Sequence to fold (809 residues):
Amino acid sequence: MTVIIKLIETAVLLAAGYLLTFRAIPWLYVRGGTLLGFDMKVAPHWEKRMKRFKTIKRGYYSFVAISTLFVMSLFLELMVNNKPLFIRYGGHFAFPAVAEWTDGILFFKSPSAVLKRSDYGQTGDGEVDYRLFAAEKRDPSVFDGQVKALEAEIADVRAQLAVKPGPKATPEERQDYQDLQETIPDIEADLKNVTAAKAAFADGKASIIMPVYPYSPREHLMDMPGRPPHKPGADHLLGTDDSATDVFAQLVYGFRISMAFALIVSFTGYLIGIIIGGVMGYFGGWTDILIQRLIEIWAAIPFLFMLIIVAAIVQPTFLLLVSLMVLLQGWVGISYYIRGEFYREKARDYVQAAVAMGATEWSVMMKHILPNSLVPLVTFAPFSIVGTIGSLVSLDYLGFGLPVGTPSWGALLDQGMKYLKYYPHLILTPSIALAVTLYSVVMIGEAVREAFDPKVFSRLR
Amino acid sequence: MHGMTTYFIRRLLLIPVTFIAITFMVYAILRVVPGGPIEQAQLQIKMAMMQEGGSAGMANEQGELQIPAAAMEDLKKYYHLDKSIPVGYGAWLWGIMHLDFGRSYVYSEPVLDVIISKFPISIYFGLIGYLASWVICVPLGVTKAIRHKSGYDTATSMLVFLGYAIPGFVACLMLMVFLGGGSYFDLFPLGGFRSDNWAELTFFGKIVDQLHHTAIPVFGYIMGGFATMTVLMKNSLLDNLGADYVRTAFAKGLSERRVIFVHAMRNSLIPLTVGIGNALGLLFAGSFLIEKTCNIPGMGLLSFNSVVQRDYPVILGTMVFLVLIRLTGNIFSDVIWAMIDPRIRFGK
Fold:
């Protein structure tokens, strides 16, 4: 039954993600652009290319799947988290998952503090155990178990107290006895708390909405039976790793971080590559030769090795890793292509016309030549994303990537290698996720290439 | 003098410039950052002195052991740390030119000896991997081109894209899960270059053992260039099949087989040779991802471990080889390219 509910929830989320990605966002984009006074009509030759792209089914469906999943992954804190979307108990209520989401994605620090257990009808210190809260809500008999356990504890303490320390007891033994006596009021207070909570839950004074998958990629599930790593099961779809962290949660958060990383690196790399390549191609002559020599030197640097040297010295953060990747590799490849494109386009009549009409060099480069040189950019982008994700996974796998504790596929692979023989799921999950993701991106790339640059081979038979 | 000879001479002259630029950058980075050789040596000497009960060193007020100033000076002198970065780099470069790469801290051996002892292992795997990818990719690319847009082409394209998507070391890991014993099949060993009992094996046993340890890493190496090479082969053959000279060959009545394999094939193989320079780098330097995954003690693992253990002379030493091989490899493949394809003319 719960399985069916989960499946329905997942399906609804996927549908919502699709609508958001392919209806809401494009609509907002076009509307926003029109309001700001831009002409949001697509140029006819681009429209034709987009139509052609849509006819290539494998690539188009991969594109739909990957972009939907990525847009959805921006809301992961609301879907895969150990904190609830909403919790209410008596007069207290809070939105812990939403607060975490705004912290992480919008960089908007919400003032939410850690929710105390005592405010939410639970015993002990520290943050509320939300999953326990949810279990209590689902099934009030959970309280009976807690009551029974506490009663048993009291009985046990009483039994121990029945044997009073004799006259020959050491001071330590007397102290222990006194300490034991003092625990009784605490346990009784807990018992009262739990019975009160049970009543409150029965009165409908408590409610909670948990995310679909109630585990976080950063929590260590130390209360699970047995020693970690755990094999896949009903609760933990893909098991846990050796620090008892849920693998599925790490996998989906790893997807987000990999994709975001690759998109940012490709985008900034392209930006720099366009500028450098454009300058080289447009101005030519000595500028071209000089920058070419510099690039030749730059390209001869063994890039992954260099990254490792730097990462071994300073603990990289997300931003540092992005900048290193862009600086060392991201811009080089594309600058060659842009250089070639600019070189060719520069000689065309429309550029001469623009120059004759008094356009500045910058506007000739950016407004006239660049839009006509975008084809290699668009066709290479998916492959650059594949390469960047591969590099990130390699770095994480070698232990020189994102900071320890960041959910990442590479770190999972590294773990998997330690448990290669008996816990194959630790390797298979990230590898299959990586393979499926990158395969889809390659499909997109292949379809984009086909749509933008259709090659017809003629041959005789 | 031909235009092309000057071109290649110019490029050869550029090698030292590039080489110095890169090694200087790495040298400067290693010098600037903390955790350098002096700190390493300090740590080692401290440990050694602690074991001896501090007899050689002098304890200061906090009870910490200090290295005698004279020993410190010696150390600094040995690593040229008493000089400024450019001068120290110059001294290091002077040593390199005389084949003095310094001593490894980890192996306590001359760096050159360490590096040379690792080369054959990387070359072994790299060479087999490279040859195997030719043996696999060329026929695959050719058959794909001949049967362009057929079911066979589509099906193998899936395979090619999958090969492009999965990094080589991940493929090795997956193979090790499935075939390395443990959960599924027990066909291949989990990494290593040879078995521990190598010396006791018979001649035939040695061959089997070596091949046994070769299979998985070589698969990883093949995966590395598989997709690019196959697609390159296919596309260049397709290009050639549409060319005028093929039309002529058909027109004079040659069989399709002869046109494809004798005329078109020769020209189609040319673009594949461009990869030789790159492959040369991989051949000597190894892929440290695959070497680490499969625990092969080659150049790749050496350079990786040297970074992990901050073995600076080895980092710089492997860097020297890596950069030199890459630079000469690129020129070498361009020379080959120009030699076999008279249409290619550099420097014009």
